[in-house]
Design brief:
The complex is a heterotrimer. By secondary structure, chain A is of the alpha+beta class. Chain A has one domain (16-241): 2-Layer Sandwich (Alpha-Beta Plaits). Chain A is built from eight helices and twelve strands. In chain A, the strands form five sheets. A four-stranded mixed beta sheet of chain A has the order 10-1-12-11. In chain A, strands 2-5 form a two-stranded antiparallel ribbon. Chain A has a two-stranded antiparallel ribbon with strand order 3-4. In chain A, strand 3 (68-69) and strand 4 form a beta hairpin. Chain B is 28% helix and 17% strand. In chain B, the strands form seven sheets. A seven-stranded mixed beta sheet of chain B has the order 5-4-16-15-14-6-7. The chains are: A alpha+beta, B alpha/beta, C mainly alpha.
Chain lengths: 251, 722, 484
């Protein structure tokens, strides 16, 4: 008989639940793309123009998925589902990078992409089951004066490197710095990534999942909650809440 | 002022500046403009590494959402929602997010200029020459002057209205394609006939538990999309139970996708369906139906609309038994010859379930703090009157600001040709759009984020409010506020044209005087400077409590509705359902990120498309990415086919927003403008029956692959469930 | 055991004419039984290096131009413009560059296989073509390495993959299969180059003694002063034996490790435990076919090579190809069965996409060319021995094996767990760069054939000394004496 007490081989960070998490209520998400635009504006994401965009080379860090089911008139669209980096606790992108450009941050417990270190093997993107990583195919042209808008807190990426959603780590750091300067712990709701801040429906909630009292922790326990591809054991930090098109549901 | 700062002063300011991280008051560029300086000599409101935040108003549409723009070292970095502004409460849509791509657009007009109409390049003028030109025009016969402005009821509109009044010139006209596609005049006229007030109405979606939308795409562009999206989210989270949304439209729009049920009604029968639901509910309740529904025969409604009686009955039960039901009148269905009846029918449905003035029901919008004497946007009929005046040579000088009528008015109305009969056309556009190209002079206004101002909020907020605007950065180019140009020209022209205001800010302050000590304000002040500072700081002024009016429908249910199906022009086999692109709206095509933002329903980027039911496409032998010619009696265009699973087989749809021939590198020669297919007939309220055209579709043999974010889902026929 | 010192031919003159015919036939058939004087054989080999016609230079210059354009201009373009000129997109982040990498590593496998494995098992037919195969190993690995560099988004930082001490204390991530890959390929490149060089030393010494001018200088340096003394031979033999045994596990491991790039990833279709041996057999499949093609080209175009490379060798390689083709079919079936039986829904989508998707023709032709074609043709001895037929079969097998890698990499990457993101792959500058690597391979080989004796003369001579034809009664029997 197999010994059921064999300890699983896990890295340090896997045991913990993570610090930052997100929940996305697909019942409220209207697919309006405000988060997509907000993310691009905050994170200096370039546009790639028509031909490349149609060839799967757009650099959206968030994509809002939906697919069609059935045929007219019994046709239905699946819920709008914004998909970005899930900041896995056990991220498949991390071990495969030969140069440690995709690493796990121990302080924020996020998946970092170290732009300076990336040599562009694109293995991380192949191994990401959520297909959320995007690659800088070239140096993207942002004709003057569009470049005035660059966010100085975020690196402008050059050609040949991977990038992905960072949970707006620059905002997390600002929040942490402020909390530290005031000698306190960071408050729930103090840090909001660009997508959550823009979301007109408030479908995206961001906060500390290590605090059981935070809004995000409460939402993560919602009965409608699920994680994407949970069975792969990637420990994603984003909880999705199902859209249930039923009449009279309470709570 | 920066030149005068000593080193000592700088250090002092630098010390205090560290604390200034929240929204700044009017002491920055808000007081007056500063010049751009190298970073070693920074303006005093800046501090190395610290951001400065300015509250202002989003100018991407007329909804009046508040923005807070993050700036650093004189550059605007990011637009966020203003959490105080009652319209959007800190939220934004994709267009609001991309507003900086307008401010820093590489194709902005950088200097005042003149050219011969049709020419895309301008020869530069200086501002004195420009003001001379405007002054000459103002000196002429007042009857020969016309102002055409954007839909937003803002300070500039007030100023121009005052100027016209003083001169004795005709009142300025406001127009936008959004007003056309939402048929706002029809909605207002229906409100007048049912409730006695020509109002855009406030639909309290947030507190409704069942909402029936008859084609209003309120999650996309309708009236105040951010406000309605907030309402929708609240409805879904309902305090007691999740709100239920049913959408009636021929095509599954983004709003319909979010609805719990989508009922594909035949175009033009939405009003009959609403009336039939009203009749069923009334009969359930009281046994008899009011006179309003006397013309409704269920068999005829089901036959014409394609909605089965069982469905009607089931929906009527849901709606009738709901605690706070709400029926929202349509967008496109109002742009039909029976549009007015449709709007009336939906308002009567609300009346039947008696939700008028109740939570989750229909309200009258609050009065503007500056009085309600501003007119609504012009209907297409009124624009036709303007076009006729132009053609008759009665208009010598046409001033155009904040609107691009050559693009936004349907071709059939003949605006572009009429422009040729106006001897002087002066555009104040920031962009080389079609109208600016067709004009004689372009005297560029600042972009919205470089301007002062206020804007009334016609709908979307329960509070009486003004959204305030201030420059978040110093003007990037040699542009000048149109208000300042008009005031200066007025002084130069002398006589009645001379208004007694030094500049734009003084004019705005004069208008705000009445609010300084107004009751129930979000803030109050003892004097104008303090009020002005807070007005800038909070991004406007509003009352603390809602002041929504309760509509009364006395006697409205006693008049019988006509209940006739819509008539369509043309002998094509498909009804054309045009809708405003949710991402681009009427003026977003020049912003590269909006172009690259996928359409929510089709995920197409950077182009236009024709939506057609896959079965119909198969019958016609059409496949995706094939280019077809679409012909209406009024025009034709070539557009790429996209099979869309959720559209009625007898309907095709084309989004409005692309098809520019000018308007900068990101917009030009991209996609098509479905307005070129529209006719020239008007409904009872004077709105264009833009959705009442039938088109023919023929093959061209060309293909033009569409860029879609959605990959080739068809590659894998069997998609496993997760 | 001073074998070479005793250079007297073993063959005995015969008088009987019928017997003579039979014996002549055997000698014509088998190189090992058809010895020629040592001096003559050396001269033949030297001659084959020197006899360079104008056609050679025309072809070589065309190839050089292709290499300059494809690898110089287009690669330079890709480095300066970015991967946008290639065909990759989301989700197909790996394209033809890695197809080529795996393909060239596969080609390089045959060299070691033929040379080391056959040497270890003392397969005598190997003798004349070990070097031709080893050269393929080295030059194939060069192309594989180049393809990896082409594939990198920031190739100018490729040195970060090396574990070198640096002030930042940063090392490569040894968890990453790509790091394993990098180390494995480097190990293989170095060991195969040494393994190529060791048996070359006596031949270089021979060439040194028979040339003048710059060649003499070159050979003198390369031959490391080899004089053919007893102790030199002893050391050389020891080193070669050592390497032959040592390089075999390297050879098997390197392609297994390459397969782990895929097998270690959590993608449907890639995450397969059979990938290791499957890739090794696939490599042999394409590599042996490539050896056959190269031998046929050499035999047809180089002077004196018809003596060294005879139908018996084509026959032997043809048999090997047939066996490997059967092994490949087994592993393909095994892989397919395991994936299909695994029941993962996404893998099912992938398999269906392979078979019925837009590139279904590629999947079908892979099976036909890799399995049906060799099985139908190579069983026949006469067809095996026909250079034209064998060349065609080898060529088609290589096409099929390239298809196989194409199906595993870009085609499989079309399918992931989010159907919303599915895309097709349209190669861009990959085409030119692939042509460039192929041209560089052929060019290097052609130039090497002018400098390096493509036939290991001493090995042939050694074999011929060991072989003798004896007569027992009426029967001629080939006997091989153990030289060790």
């Amino acid at each position: 008989m197999a010994n059921h007490n064999i300890p699983e081989v896990k890295a340090d960070w896997e045991a913990t639940t993570g610090i930052w998490g997100m929940s996305i209520d697909m019942d409220m998400c209207t697919g309006c793309q405000a988060c997509v635009a907000a993310c691009a504006m905050e994170n200096n994401i370039p546009f790639v123009e028509e031909k490349d965009a149609g060839y799967g080379r757009s650099l959206h860090w968030i994509r809002i998925e939906h697919t069609w089911q059935g045929e007219y008139p019994d046709v239905n669209a699946t819920s709008f589902e914004p998909i970005m980096c899930q900041q896995c606790g056990n991220a498949p992108c991390e071990p495969v990078c030969p140069v440690f450009a995709s690493v796990h941050s121990q302080s924020e417990e996020l998946n970092l992409q170290v732009y300076n270190r990336c040599v562009g093997t694109r293995y991380c993107a192949n191994n990401c089951p959520y297909v959320t990583r995007v690659f800088n195919m070239r140096d993207y042209d942002r004709p003057d004066p569009l470049s005035n808008q660059f966010n100085p807190d975020v690196t402008v990426r050059r050609r040949g490197i991977m990038e992905k959603c960072t949970f707006c780590i620059q905002r997390i750091h600002k929040g942490e710095d402020l909390a530290k300067s005031e000698g306190r712990d960071i408050r729930d709701g103090e840090v909001v990534p660009a997508c959550a801040q823009a979301c007109p429906a408030d479908a995206i909630v961001f906060g500390r999942i290590d605090d059981p009292a935070s809004k995000i922790s409460v939402m993560a326990k919602n009965g409608r909650g699920f994680k994407l591809l949970d069975s792969l054991g990637t420990l994603p930090r984003i909880t999705y809440l199902k859209e249930e098109k039923t009449y009279g549901r309470t709570g | 002022m920066t030149e005068k700062i000593s080193r000592r002063d700088f250090l002092k300011i630098a010390g205090t500046g560290a604390a200034i991280t929240t929204i700044l008051t009017g002491c920055g560029p808000a007081s007056r403009y500063t010049t751009r300086e190298p970073y070693i000599k920074m303006p005093e409101y800046n501090y190395n590494g610290q951001s400065t935040y300015y509250a202002t108003t989003c100018r991407e549409c007329a909804a009046g959402c508040g923005l807070v723009v993050r700036t650093m070292q004189g550059r605007a970095l990011k637009a966020e929602g203003n959490k105080y502004n009652p319209v959007n409460l800190g939220k934004t849509c994709a267009r609001g997010q991309s507003t900086l791509h307008g401010l820093y657009n590489p194709d902005r007009i950088q200097n005042p200029g003149k050219h011969s109409p049709g020419d895309k390049s301008f020869s530069n003028l200086d501002w004195n020459a420009a003001i001379n030109q405007v002054a000459d025009a103002l000196k002429g016969n007042p009857d020969g002057i016309a102002f055409l402005m954007g839909l937003a009821p803002d300070h500039l509109f007030d100023l121009v209205a005052d100027l016209c009044k003083s001169l004795g010139a005709p009142e300025p006209v406001r127009y936008s394609a959004l007003g056309l596609f939402e048929a706002r005049a029809t909605l207002g006229e229906a409100a007048r006939s049912v409730f006695g007030k020509p109002d855009l109405l406030f639909f309290d979606l947030a507190n409704a538990d069942v909402a029936f939308s008859f084609g209003a795409n309120f999650l996309e562009t309708w009236l105040s999309p951010v406000a309605y999206t907030r309402g929708f989210a609240k409805m879904r989270q309902g305090t007691n139970r999740r709100g239920y949304l049913v959408h009636f439209e021929a095509r599954m729009s983004q709003t319909a996708m979010k609805a719990d049920e989508w009922i594909p009604t035949a175009p033009g029968t939405e009003g009959m369906v609403a009336a039939a639901l009203g009749k069923l509910i009334a009969e359930n309740k009281a046994g008899t139906a009011p006179a309003a529904f006397s013309n409704i025969e269920y068999a005829r409604v089901t036959a014409l609309s394609g909605v089965s009686f069982e469905t009607l009955k089931r929906l009527a039960d849901i709606f009738g038994s709901a605690k706070s039901p709400l029926a929202i009148p349509p967008g496109a269905a109002l742009g039909l010859d029976n549009g007015l009846e449709t709007a009336q029918a939906v308002l009567m449905l609300n009346t039947v379930v008696d939700n008028l003035g109740k939570p989750g029901g229909v309200f009258l919008t609050p009065a503007s703090p500056l009085g309600n004497d501003y007119q609504r946007g012009a209907t297409a009929k009124e624009m036709t009157a303007l076009v006729e005046k132009m053609n008759a040579g009665k208009i010598k000088t046409l001033f155009i600001h904040g609107v691009n009528p050559v693009f936004e008015l349907p071709h059939s109305l003949g605006f572009e040709n009429a422009l040729k009969n106006v001897s002087t056309v002066i555009s104040f556009s920031s962009f080389p759009d079609e109208t600016a190209v067709a004009a004689h002079y372009v005297f560029p206004d600042h972009s919205g984020l470089e301007s002062f101002g206020y804007q009334r909020v016609p709908t979307g907020s329960g509070q009486s409010m003004l959204s305030g605007a201030q420059p978040v950065v110093a003007p990037y180019y040699n542009t000048r506020a149109t208000a300042d140009v008009l005031l200066a020209a007025g002084v130069q022209a002398g006589g009645k044209a001379a208004l007694s205001f030094k500049d734009e800010v003084e004019y705005i302050q004069s208008k705000l005087t009445a609010l300084v000590d107004a009751k129930d304000g979000f803030f109050s002040a003892a004097d104008m400077p303090t009020f002005w500072a807070q007005f800038q700081q909070y991004g406007g002024w509003w009352q603390n409590s809602a002041s929504l009016g309760t509509p009364t429908a006395a006697g409205a249910l006693d008049r019988a509705l006509k209940a006739s199906p819509a008539q369509f022009e043309g002998d094509g086999e498909f009804i054309l359902l045009p809708y405003v692109s949710p991402i681009l709206a009427e003026a977003g095509a020049n912003k590269p990120w909006l172009q690259e933002t996928p359409d929510p329903t089709t995920t197409v980027m950077w182009n236009s498309w024709l939506e057609i039911n896959p079965k119909t496409a198969e019958e016609l032998g059409l496949v995706n990415d094939e280019v077809v010619k679409v012909t209406s009696p009024f025009g034709e265009l070539e557009v790429t086919v996209l099979t869309y699973p959720a559209i009625r087989p007898d309907v095709v749809a084309i989004p409005f927003g692309q098809g520019h021939t000018a308007y900068g590198r990101y917009a030009e020669n991209r996609g098509v403008n479905p307005a070129n297919l529209f006719g020239k007939t008007f409904n009872g309220a004077g709105d264009l029956t833009f959705a009442g055209v039938k088109v023919k579709i023929s093959k061209t043999g060309k293909t033009n692959p569409l860029s879609r974010l959605e990959g080739y889902t068809r590659l894998a026929q069997s998609e496993p469930k997760q | 055991m001073a074998v070479l010192a005793n250079a007297a031919p073993h063959a005995q003159p015969h008088s009987n004419s019928a017997e003579h015919d039979h014996e002549a036939h055997l000698r014509e058939e088998h190189l090992m039984l058809d010895p020629r004087p040592r001096g003559e054989m050396n001269a033949m080999v030297m001659d084959s290096m020197h006899a360079t016609g104008w056609k050679f230079w025309v072809i070589a210059s065309i190839l050089a131009v292709i290499v300059v354009i494809c690898l110089g201009y287009y690669w330079g373009l890709m480095i300066s413009e970015g991967m946008v000129v290639a065909g990759i997109n989301r989700p197909i982040y790996w394209g033809i560059f890695l197809v080529n990498t795996v393909f060239w590593i596969g080609i390089s496998h045959a060299g070691t296989f033929v040379s080391a494995l056959l040497r270890v098992f003392k397969a005598e037919f190997r003798r004349p073509f070990t070097r031709a195969a080893e050269l393929m190993t080295t030059f194939g690995l060069v192309q594989a390495g180049l393809s990896i560099f082409m594939h990198m988004g920031r190739v100018w930082l490729a040195f970060w993959l090396f574990p070198y001490p640096n002030e930042r204390g940063l090392w490569p991530n040894f968890h990453s299969p790509l790091s394993w890959d990098f180390l494995a390929i480097n190990t293989y490149l170095m060991s195969s180059t040494m393994y190529l060089f060791l048996p070359l030393i006596p031949d270089l010494a021979m060439a040194r003694d028979r040339s003048t001018g710059w060649r003499k200088v070159l050979y003198r340096i390369l031959a490391l002063g080899f004089r053919g003394t007893e102790s030199e031979w002893t050391h050389l033999r020891f080193a070669m034996n050592l390497f032959a045994f040592a390089i075999l596990p390297v050879m098997f491991s390197v392609h297994t490790i390459v397969s782990w790039d895929f097998a270690a990833a959590m993608r449907p279709g890639w995450n397969s435990t059979i990938f290791g041996p499957y890739f090794v057999v696939g490599a042999l499949q394409s590599g042996l076919s490539a050896v056959a093609m190269v031998l046929i080209v050499i035999r047809g175009n180089m002077k004196n090579m018809k003596y060294f490379i005879r139908p018996e060798h084509l026959d032997a390689i043809g048999k090997l190809m047939l066996i490997i083709s059967m092994a490949w079919a087994y592993f393909f079936f095994n892989d397919y069965m395991v994936q299909w039986y695994g029941g993962d829904s996404w893998t099912k989508v992938l398999l269906k996409f392979h078979e019925e998707g837009p590139l279904g023709w590629m999947w079908m032709s892979m099976l036909i060319l890799n399995v049906a074609l060799p099985w139908l043709i190579l069983w026949n001895k006469n067809w095996r021995r026909n250079p034209v037929i064998l060349f065609t079969v080898g060529f088609l097998i290589n096409i099929a094996m390239w298809f196989e890698r194409y199906i595993i990499i870009p085609t499989s990457l079309s399918i992931n767990r989010f159907p919303f993101t599915y895309q097709l792959y349209k190669p861009g500058v990959e085409v030119q760069l692939s042509i460039g690597t192929l041209a560089l391979f052929i060019l290097l080989y052609m130039l090497a054939s002018r400098i390096i004796p493509l036939v290991p003369v001493w090995e042939v001579q050694e074999g011929q000394m060991a072989h003798s034809l004896r007569k027992f009664g009426k029967e001629h029997v080939v006997t091989v004496s153990d030289l060790e």
